[in-house]
Design goal:
The chain is an alpha+beta fold. Helices cover 54% and strands 19% of the residues. The protein has four helices and three strands.
Length: 113
Amino acid sequence: MYWRNNHWRQNWTRQYPPVDPSLFHQSLQTYASLTARGNLLIERLLASPERMQQLMEAAQAGQDDTVNRIVHAAAGTTDITTSYTPMSVTFNLTADTPQLSPCCRMTMNLRWG
């Protein structure tokens, strides 16, 4: 019985092209850079209790421009999308490369309330 089941699986499996790790390697490298950018944002927010408080207050007041200004200043880049509630913030970091578009996305959800 085992031989027949195994034989059936071998004959009916999908045929995929051979694996090529180069694209996966590129995705991993790109994601590593996203992780580094996200880590930089976290470190800069941790280093400044004043910045953390300003971010929270601006989010609670619904001040989009102020929230974005604080996040972009802390991250050192403008390619972070931020959404928030009065009790949390979500940072979305996205990287697109010509070969991998769209490639990688990292989402950080952080609560304060």
